[in-house]
Amino acid sequence: MSVVEAVVLQGTGGIYQLRTVAGELLEASIRGRLKQEGQTKIAVGDNVGIERDERDGAWAIIEIQARRSTLSRKTPGRARGERIVAANVDQVVVVFAAAKPEPHVRMIDRFLVIAEGNDIAACLVINKVDLVGGPAGAAVLAEEYERAGYPVFRTSVQDQTGLRELHDTLAGRTSALTGPSGVGKSSLLNALFPGLDLRTGEISESVNKGRHTTVGARLIPVPDALGGYVVDTPGLREVGMWGLSPEHLDQCFPEFKVLIGECKFADCGHDHEPGCAIRLRVEAGTISRARWESYLKLRSELRELERAW
Length: 309
Ligand SMILES: Nc1nc2c(ncn2[C@@H]2O[C@H](COP(=O)(O)OP(=O)(O)O)[C@@H](O)[C@H]2O)c(=O)[nH]1
Ligand SMILES: [Mg+2]
Ligand SMILES: [Zn+2]
Known about the structure:
Layout: E1 4-12, E2 15-20, E3 25-30, H1 32-36, E4 47-52, E5 59-64, E6 70-74, E7 82-87, E8 91-97, H2 105-117, E9 121-127, H3 139-148, E10 152-154, H4 163-170, E11 174-178, H5 185-192, E12 218-221, E13 229-232, H6 236-239, H7 254-257, H8 277-284, H9 289-308
Parallel strand pairs: 3-5, 8-9, 8-11, 9-10, 11-13
Antiparallel strand pairs: 1-2, 1-4, 2-3, 4-5, 6-7, 12-13
Helix pairs in contact: 2-9
The protein binds guanosine-5'-diphosphate, magnesium ion and zinc ion.
């Protein structure tokens, strides 16, 4: 009996949808022994080994491979309070629109912090540049994030702008696309990977909005010669920033991180402390003021969360 390698696409009620390395789609449950070893926390994106029962032909997951990353939601104050949304995500792709809806920097920064907090690379997509007269119309926003160290793609599904570059970033990797509803995530994926046929133009992913509905993430194989997957989550908002301590938030802003050692005080909060290397850069215009304001805003939110516990 040989072990087959597969990726977990989705899982509900102990039944997992998998895709084998050969591209075959099948369902499997967890082998009893694996359960006993306490390794039942299988996540979407996990690479697993499966085996077929000779008597009833059913597939069972018998092993989980070590993860190269986890996108998880951590509960503050609880050592075991981690819930993995997806495993083995290579990058978080934060999608916004140049207009309709208007970009919201605080929300962009929140998504980027979630990626950084999980040690996952991030990039930005500014879609619908056709609505601002082409890529040049989104230059200010793009430069703001490029300066912070993030790759930025400016795209238009309508004008077929920037699609090749984005395709090359997504193909062959596992990407979690996130961003507000209506910015064109599904349209972009359909344009990049013909045959995907995702529904577009929906008002919102409202089925996932109910307080009691916990619809997990889903991994979608992209039809491409290089392979790759996109993670369809109910929204990274659901992942949240929980578990991040306000004192470590500066580590989640890459352009701050390299300067922290230069602040006069080791515990500098980068607000109005004397000798703050970050505020100095903000005043000089080399660090974006909007990013600094995001940092202060998000830090006070994290402090509120901490107090609530
Ligand atoms: N003008 C313009 N409209 C777009 C573009 N991309 C998507 N849309 C439209 O924006 C709406 C929302 O797109 P959708 O892909 O469903 O967004 P999602 O909610 O992020 O998945 C649809 O009506 C699309 O036709 C674009 O590049 N330019
Ligand atoms: Mg969509
Ligand atoms: Zn400082």
